[in-house]
Amino acid sequence: MRLFFRLFLGVLGLCFLALALWPAAREAMALAAGTHSFIPLGQVAFELDPALLNMTQAGVQRHVAPWLWDDVLQPLLEQPAWPILGGLGLALLWLRPRSR
Q1: Cα distance between residue 91 and residue 12, in whole Å
Q2: What residues form DSSP beta bridges with 40?
């Protein structure tokens, strides 16, 4: 079971790192073309699943707390995607259980 958990966290961390590379690559291409702009995390989430943001907003505001969406999640979605996804991926890789 521990091996599965370690493998799962490692693969999940690598997936987040791979997701972080796509916006970073797009930003690098835009920088080379002279039209540089950071790609927000919300845009990446919308490109992956368009209904995701709407369902997440409704669920958080109705079932958790309305202030959580307005004060925490919405500003987070407006930040550049690659440092957030890359940091999350590295944190998951770092937090996985170590082999002895």
Answers
A1: 11
A2: 80
